[in-house]
Amino acid sequence: MHSVKIKDYMSSNVTTFKPEDSIISALRTLIKKGRSGAPVLDNEGTLVGILSEIDCLKEVLMDGYYQEAGDRVANHMTRELDSVNQDDDIITCADLFMKGRRRLPVLDGHKLVGIITRQDFARALINRIDHPHHGKN
């Protein structure tokens, strides 16, 4: 099989949050943009977490129940991160997606340059099947 790079299938139009953003505001953004989660970047642009819609929903549900103001992204994001490099072969995503990851931040060195989702990965695999000799190295 030929090599297909992650950068060929990732989205570079990435919605991001800051740790100090409110959960309610983050959930509104996810809904508006049709996303199920997004990377969290600190003020230097370093990837520090991932926030999923389920993280937001848990907090918003508790806020509604207890009638409290919304909490911050930093208190609910996942800090244990898996990421991939934009120049890696698309197959490097396979294990991570099979373990249940829905999205992976794509880095160029330490800089966030995109995101790849399970759907992007599936599209790459189908493209490989449909065009087995296209771009062969």
- Low-confidence sequence ranges: none
**What percentage of amino acids are in beta strands?**
15-25%
CATH topology: CBS-domain
Give the radius of gyration: 17 Å
Order of helices and strands: HEEHEHEEH
Number of helices: 4
How many domain modules? 1
Oligomer: single chain
CATH architecture: Roll
* Biggest beta sheet summary: 3 strands, mixed
Alpha carbon gap, first and last residue: 9 Å
Could you say which overall geometry the principal axes of the C-alpha atoms support?
elongated
CATH first level = Alpha Beta
The overall pLDDT, averaged over residues, is 87
**What's the β-strand tally?**
5
The percent range for helix content is 25-40%
Kindly summarize this structure in a few lines:
The protein has a single domain, classed as Roll (CBS-domain). It is elongated and about 55 Å long. Helix content is 31%, strand content 19%.
Overview of this protein structure:
This protein has 137 residues and is an alpha+beta fold. It has one domain (6-130): CBS-domain, CATH 3.10.580.10. Helices cover 31% and strands 19% of the residues. The protein has helices at residues 23-33, 53-66, 94-98, 118-130; strands at residues 37-41, 47-52, 84-85, 103-108, 111-117. The strands form two sheets. The protein has a three-stranded mixed sheet. Helix 3 (94-98) links the parallel strand 3 and strand 4. Helix 1 (23-33) crosses helix 2 (53-66). The longest helix has 14 residues, at 53-66. The termini are close together. 24% of the residues are buried. The mean pLDDT is 87.
